[in-house]
Design a protein that fits this description.
eight-stranded antiparallel β-sheet; 5 helices
Length: 167
Protein backbone atom coordinates (compact mmCIF):
# COMPACT_ATOMS: atom_id res chain seq x y z
CA UNK A 1 0.00 0.00 0.00
CA UNK A 2 1.29 3.41 -0.97
CA UNK A 3 -0.24 6.77 -0.11
CA UNK A 4 0.16 9.69 -2.49
CA UNK A 5 -0.63 13.30 -1.65
CA UNK A 6 -1.98 14.94 -4.79
CA UNK A 7 -0.22 18.29 -5.10
CA UNK A 8 -2.17 19.77 -8.02
CA UNK A 9 -5.78 19.10 -7.03
CA UNK A 10 -7.41 21.06 -9.86
CA UNK A 11 -5.44 19.14 -12.50
CA UNK A 12 -6.17 15.83 -10.77
CA UNK A 13 -9.90 16.50 -10.41
CA UNK A 14 -10.10 17.56 -14.04
CA UNK A 15 -8.48 14.28 -15.11
CA UNK A 16 -10.65 12.25 -12.73
CA UNK A 17 -14.00 13.84 -13.62
CA UNK A 18 -13.67 15.37 -17.09
CA UNK A 19 -11.46 12.94 -19.04
CA UNK A 20 -11.15 9.21 -19.65
CA UNK A 21 -7.95 9.08 -17.57
CA UNK A 22 -9.46 6.71 -14.96
CA UNK A 23 -11.81 4.81 -17.26
CA UNK A 24 -9.84 1.58 -16.78
CA UNK A 25 -11.48 1.44 -13.33
CA UNK A 26 -14.82 0.41 -11.88
CA UNK A 27 -16.51 2.26 -9.04
CA UNK A 28 -16.87 0.42 -5.73
CA UNK A 29 -18.05 3.46 -3.78
CA UNK A 30 -18.34 7.24 -3.98
CA UNK A 31 -19.17 9.57 -1.09
CA UNK A 32 -19.43 13.25 -1.92
CA UNK A 33 -20.33 15.83 0.71
CA UNK A 34 -21.51 19.22 -0.52
CA UNK A 35 -24.83 20.66 0.76
CA UNK A 36 -25.82 16.99 1.35
CA UNK A 37 -23.85 13.79 1.53
CA UNK A 38 -24.33 11.72 -1.60
CA UNK A 39 -23.35 8.06 -1.46
CA UNK A 40 -23.10 5.87 -4.55
CA UNK A 41 -22.73 2.15 -4.15
CA UNK A 42 -21.07 0.94 -7.33
CA UNK A 43 -22.54 -2.57 -7.01
CA UNK A 44 -24.93 -3.28 -9.87
CA UNK A 45 -28.53 -3.76 -8.68
CA UNK A 46 -30.12 -7.03 -9.88
CA UNK A 47 -33.69 -5.81 -9.30
CA UNK A 48 -33.23 -3.15 -11.97
CA UNK A 49 -32.53 -5.72 -14.69
CA UNK A 50 -34.57 -8.51 -16.21
CA UNK A 51 -32.96 -11.93 -15.72
CA UNK A 52 -31.98 -11.90 -19.40
CA UNK A 53 -30.31 -8.49 -19.06
CA UNK A 54 -28.58 -9.55 -15.85
CA UNK A 55 -27.05 -12.56 -17.60
CA UNK A 56 -26.12 -10.62 -20.76
CA UNK A 57 -22.46 -9.58 -20.43
CA UNK A 58 -22.86 -7.01 -23.19
CA UNK A 59 -25.38 -5.15 -20.99
CA UNK A 60 -23.76 -5.84 -17.61
CA UNK A 61 -20.14 -6.87 -18.13
CA UNK A 62 -19.09 -6.30 -14.50
CA UNK A 63 -20.48 -6.62 -10.98
CA UNK A 64 -19.55 -2.97 -10.39
CA UNK A 65 -20.41 0.10 -12.46
CA UNK A 66 -17.82 1.45 -14.86
CA UNK A 67 -16.24 4.68 -13.68
CA UNK A 68 -16.93 6.12 -17.14
CA UNK A 69 -20.69 5.66 -16.56
CA UNK A 70 -20.72 7.17 -13.06
CA UNK A 71 -18.16 9.93 -13.70
CA UNK A 72 -20.70 12.42 -15.17
CA UNK A 73 -23.00 11.93 -12.17
CA UNK A 74 -20.15 12.61 -9.74
CA UNK A 75 -19.07 15.63 -11.80
CA UNK A 76 -22.59 17.08 -11.65
CA UNK A 77 -22.58 16.72 -7.84
CA UNK A 78 -19.21 18.47 -7.50
CA UNK A 79 -19.26 21.23 -10.11
CA UNK A 80 -19.97 24.74 -9.00
CA UNK A 81 -18.26 27.61 -7.27
CA UNK A 82 -17.93 25.95 -3.87
CA UNK A 83 -15.44 23.22 -3.11
CA UNK A 84 -16.97 20.05 -1.66
CA UNK A 85 -16.61 19.52 2.07
CA UNK A 86 -15.19 16.06 1.42
CA UNK A 87 -15.04 13.27 -1.15
CA UNK A 88 -14.09 9.64 -1.28
CA UNK A 89 -13.89 7.41 -4.33
CA UNK A 90 -12.97 3.73 -4.18
CA UNK A 91 -11.98 2.49 -7.62
CA UNK A 92 -11.15 -1.07 -8.68
CA UNK A 93 -9.08 -1.86 -11.74
CA UNK A 94 -11.25 -3.55 -14.39
CA UNK A 95 -10.83 -7.34 -14.36
CA UNK A 96 -9.24 -7.53 -17.82
CA UNK A 97 -6.55 -5.05 -16.75
CA UNK A 98 -6.07 -6.88 -13.45
CA UNK A 99 -5.61 -10.16 -15.34
CA UNK A 100 -2.97 -8.54 -17.57
CA UNK A 101 -1.19 -7.25 -14.49
CA UNK A 102 -1.24 -10.66 -12.84
CA UNK A 103 -0.04 -12.33 -16.04
CA UNK A 104 2.96 -9.95 -16.16
CA UNK A 105 3.96 -10.73 -12.58
CA UNK A 106 7.26 -12.49 -12.14
CA UNK A 107 6.08 -14.79 -9.36
CA UNK A 108 3.01 -16.01 -11.20
CA UNK A 109 0.47 -14.75 -8.68
CA UNK A 110 -2.58 -17.04 -8.55
CA UNK A 111 -5.45 -14.81 -9.73
CA UNK A 112 -7.94 -16.60 -7.49
CA UNK A 113 -6.25 -14.94 -4.48
CA UNK A 114 -6.94 -11.38 -5.64
CA UNK A 115 -10.38 -9.83 -5.73
CA UNK A 116 -9.35 -6.33 -6.78
CA UNK A 117 -6.53 -3.87 -7.27
CA UNK A 118 -7.89 -0.70 -5.67
CA UNK A 119 -7.21 3.01 -5.50
CA UNK A 120 -8.93 5.09 -2.82
CA UNK A 121 -9.10 8.81 -3.47
CA UNK A 122 -9.91 11.05 -0.47
CA UNK A 123 -10.38 14.77 -0.07
CA UNK A 124 -10.97 16.09 3.46
CA UNK A 125 -11.48 19.76 2.65
CA UNK A 126 -7.77 20.47 2.85
CA UNK A 127 -5.76 17.55 1.52
CA UNK A 128 -6.25 15.11 -1.35
CA UNK A 129 -4.72 11.65 -1.15
CA UNK A 130 -4.76 8.56 -3.26
CA UNK A 131 -3.94 5.23 -1.63
CA UNK A 132 -3.34 1.93 -3.36
CA UNK A 133 -4.47 -1.39 -1.96
CA UNK A 134 -5.44 -4.92 -2.84
CA UNK A 135 -8.56 -6.78 -1.82
CA UNK A 136 -7.58 -10.43 -1.27
CA UNK A 137 -9.93 -13.39 -1.34
CA UNK A 138 -7.56 -15.50 0.71
CA UNK A 139 -4.45 -14.97 2.81
CA UNK A 140 -1.31 -14.52 0.74
CA UNK A 141 1.95 -14.16 2.71
CA UNK A 142 3.84 -12.98 -0.37
CA UNK A 143 3.95 -9.17 -0.69
CA UNK A 144 4.75 -9.30 -4.42
CA UNK A 145 1.21 -8.34 -5.52
CA UNK A 146 1.24 -5.20 -3.34
CA UNK A 147 4.64 -4.12 -4.64
CA UNK A 148 3.59 -4.80 -8.22
CA UNK A 149 0.34 -2.80 -7.87
CA UNK A 150 2.14 0.06 -6.11
CA UNK A 151 4.73 0.24 -8.92
CA UNK A 152 2.06 0.03 -11.62
CA UNK A 153 -0.07 2.77 -10.06
CA UNK A 154 3.00 4.97 -9.53
CA UNK A 155 3.81 4.64 -13.27
CA UNK A 156 0.15 5.39 -14.09
CA UNK A 157 0.26 8.68 -12.15
CA UNK A 158 3.55 9.67 -13.79
CA UNK A 159 2.29 8.80 -17.30
CA UNK A 160 -0.91 10.80 -16.73
CA UNK A 161 1.10 13.82 -15.51
CA UNK A 162 -0.53 13.77 -12.08
CA UNK A 163 1.68 15.58 -9.56
CA UNK A 164 2.09 13.96 -6.16
CA UNK A 165 4.26 13.59 -3.09
CA UNK A 166 4.76 10.25 -1.42
CA UNK A 167 3.51 10.15 2.17
Amino acid sequence: MTAYTITERKNFMSKLLATDCFDSFLLREAVITTYNTFTINGQMEPAFFTSEEWDDTSIRPYELSCWSDIRPICFSLIKGKKTPVSMKFVLHLKPEHAEQLIAQSEGGIPKHYIQAFAATIRYDGDRMTCTTGISFLDFLPDKTPERMWDETFHKFLVQKNIAFDLD
